[in-house]
Specification:
Elements lengths: L21 E6 L4 E2 L2 E2 L12 E6 L8 H15 L7 E6 H11 L7 E4 L2 E4 L6 E4 L2 E5 L6 H9 L3 E4 L2
Antiparallel strand pairs: 1-4, 1-5, 2-3, 4-9, 5-10, 6-9, 7-8
């Protein structure tokens, strides 16, 4: 996983995620039906200005299995995860291109590295999620864009 595209070798908060890199989205159980991730998993919650994702190239693990294990651990520290929840893997460039080409306003999604603090739900300790990132320039009612993002899923795996 090459982070050499950044000036200091590591992304800083607010840096654009390169098109060749990957993001993962935690898809809650309520957005998974019969094992399939629904488009609703790619809509930001009302009142939020971005859709939370995790920037995979920030997680320096030797293989995808290890990255998924780290994401599961991270999600469990932050949230109660339902048994049907899944993790969706997406390529940044594929998502940006598909949305720009297939929306009438040629929507330009912004995918930015956005580390965030959170409270460990068991220990109450304040920690930082260094891979937290976001997709900006979409709203909670952008159903078409959610469907386009859903169509870009490269693979998915259980979140538990």
């Amino acid at each position: 996983m090459n982070l050499g595209e950044f000036s200091n070798g590591q992304p800083m908060k607010g840096d654009k995620i390169p098109d060749s890199h990957h993001i993962a989205r935690l898809c809650k159980s309520t957005t998974v039906s019969n094992g399939t991730i629904q488009a609703s998993a790619f809509l930001p919650n009302m009142g939020h200005d971005h859709l939370s994702v995790n920037y995979l190239e920030c997680l320096t693990f030797p293989d995808r299995t290890s990255v998924y294990e780290e994401l599961r651990s991270l999600y469990n520290r932050k949230l109660a995860i339902g048994k049907k929840a899944k993790i969706a893997l997406l390529n940044v460039g594929s998502v940006r291109k598909k949305v720009a080409l297939e929306t009438t306003d040629h929507r330009q999604l912004e995918m930015l590295h956005w580390p965030e603090e959170y409270k460990d739900r068991k220990t109450e300790e304040t920690l930082v999620d260094p891979s937290h990132s976001g997709i900006w320039n979409l709203r909670s009612d952008d159903d078409l864009i959610a469907e386009l993002i859903q169509a870009c899923i490269l693979e998915d795996t259980s979140a538990v």
